[in-house]
Specification:
The chain has 204 residues and is of the alpha+beta class. It has two domains: 76 residues, Winged helix-like DNA-binding domain superfamily/Winged helix DNA-binding domain (Arc Repressor Mutant, subunit A, Orthogonal Bundle), CATH 1.10.10; 99 residues, no CATH class. Helices cover 37% and strands 10% of the residues. It contains seven helices and seven strands, in the order αααββββααβαββα. The protein has a three-stranded antiparallel sheet with strand order 5-7-6. It has a two-stranded antiparallel ribbon with strand order 1-2. A two-stranded antiparallel ribbon has the order 3-4. The protein is globular and about 50 Å long.
Length: 204
Amino acid sequence: MNKPSKTQENIAAFLTQNPGSTIEEIIAGIGGTSLIINNSVKSMIKNEMIISTTGKIPKLTLVEPIAATETTDEATQDEDKQDENAKPKPYYITRHSSTYKFDGLQFKKGPLAVAVIKRYVEDHAPTFEQLKEIFPDDMVKYYGVFTIHSEAKKASLKYPRYFLKEDQIITLADKTKIAVTNQWTLANFEPFVKIARKLGYKIK
């Protein structure tokens, strides 16, 4: 079986955390060119790597699990050269699973975002609008970096899109409660880390 492309790795990693997503949610979640992502999804469906529901807005789910190892940047071969009559082999894709160190603790991407924003709120007591200026919505397409707690709950009714445990909810100075998204990929998280470091927070 040909090696999956980088786009396919990102799609598979996203669907592992967000089964039943639409193509629009995938595009928003991983970023990139919609045409390339659409073509990659079609190829993955054709090769039985993804299953799609019928209906006006198809929902996509990954068929095989992802191996929890680091991603590589090697280019894939042309998938169109595969023997269409050959039975697809089990499909395993690697994903980025690094941890970060902050305040003496180890965090994965999403929990680190919660910790950094919580610390910034404690240090600077920003309003909701001021916090949006520091961590703008376009950093995480479709979901934004954070939103009002009640809106986050509505968005997470079917699939979790935000961190909603009691100790993960952040309360601003005006008592507004917010929830941080869990829709982080390596592509959209590195800019977040850069902003946090510019704010003076040491992240390793």
